[in-house]
């Protein structure tokens, strides 16, 4: 398989860090997010990486080059203006030679299996990785008499799942992608209505989306205390 990493986002909630560094190059545990993503994809034999880049793309060129030092081949799909996730995938599709292919949001860090996702496709045109929804807040439990019984720090909310920002798609969907717009708001609802989109649930995996300074700090701490 090949992989498209959507690395063109600005990341306003991480300003001022992203005023001079694109969000996918922010470091966690001593390595840029993009490097960690590429290393993760390599564990599944994916060595052809297409980076959809826009904002401060020259910084990404400087850090990653042609990918040789990471043991991969990197192709760059340049966006002169934001195209949204759907437009970005369509713009990058000129580099696609394999079917299916992987799409990853440029701010997601995980160890979930894209091979499992590909194997789940069957006759469907796409698969979305889902992970359990975790409460952003700690939960306080109390009994019928009003006495507090337990504190639970950001528990998983059973039965609720969120889009993990990792997709496996067939090449035949490319012609259905918008020139501009988010795939989650354009193509995916239509595929779901037509029963062409699979859900692949991952419960016991590491997954974080770096959307805020707090997320960045927590992920940096996680990787700083674990093997790189």
Automatic annotation (TrEMBL):
Top-level taxon of origin: Archaea
Listed Pfam families: NTP_transferase
GO molecular-function terms, A-Z: transferase activity
InterPro entries linked: Mannose-1P_guanyltransferase (IPR050486), NTP_transferase_dom (IPR005835), Nucleotide-diphossugar_trans (IPR029044)
Annotated keywords: Transferase
Key word Transferase present: yes
Nucleotidyl transferase domain mapped to chain residues: 3-221
Alphabetized PANTHER family for the sequence: SUGAR-1-PHOSPHATE GUANYL TRANSFERASE
Protein's name according to its UniProt entry: Nucleotidyltransferase
Taxonomic lineage: Archaea, Thermoproteota, Thermoprotei, Thermoproteales, Thermoproteaceae
């Amino acid at each position: 398989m090949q992989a498209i990493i959507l690395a063109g986002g600005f990341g306003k909630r991480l300003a001022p860090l992203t005023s001079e560094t694109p969000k996918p190059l922010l470091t966690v545990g001593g390595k840029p997010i993009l490097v960690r993503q590429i290393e993760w994809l390599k564990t599944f034999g994916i060595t052809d990486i297409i980076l959809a880049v826009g904002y401060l793309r020259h910084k990404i060129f400087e850090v990653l080059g042609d990918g040789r030092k990471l043991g991969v081949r990197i192709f760059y799909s340049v966006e002169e203006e934001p195209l949204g996730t759907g437009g970005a995938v369509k713009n990058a599709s000129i580099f696609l030679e394999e079917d299916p292919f992987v799409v990853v949001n440029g701010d997601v860090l995980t160890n979930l299996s894209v091979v499992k996702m590909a194997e789940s496709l069957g006759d469907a045109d796409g698969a979305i990785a889902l992970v359990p929804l975790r409460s952003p807040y700690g939960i306080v439990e109390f009994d019928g008499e009003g006495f507090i019984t337990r504190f639970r720090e950001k528990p998983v909310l059973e039965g609720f799942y969120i889009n993990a920002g990792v997709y496996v798609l067939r090449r035949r969907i490319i012609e259905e992608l918008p020139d501009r717009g988010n795939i989650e708001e354009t193509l995916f609802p239509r595929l779901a209505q037509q029963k062409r989109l699979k859900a692949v649930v991952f419960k016991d995996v590491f997954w974080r989306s770096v959307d805020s300074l707090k997320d960045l700090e927590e992920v940096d701490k996680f990787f700083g205390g674990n093997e790189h």
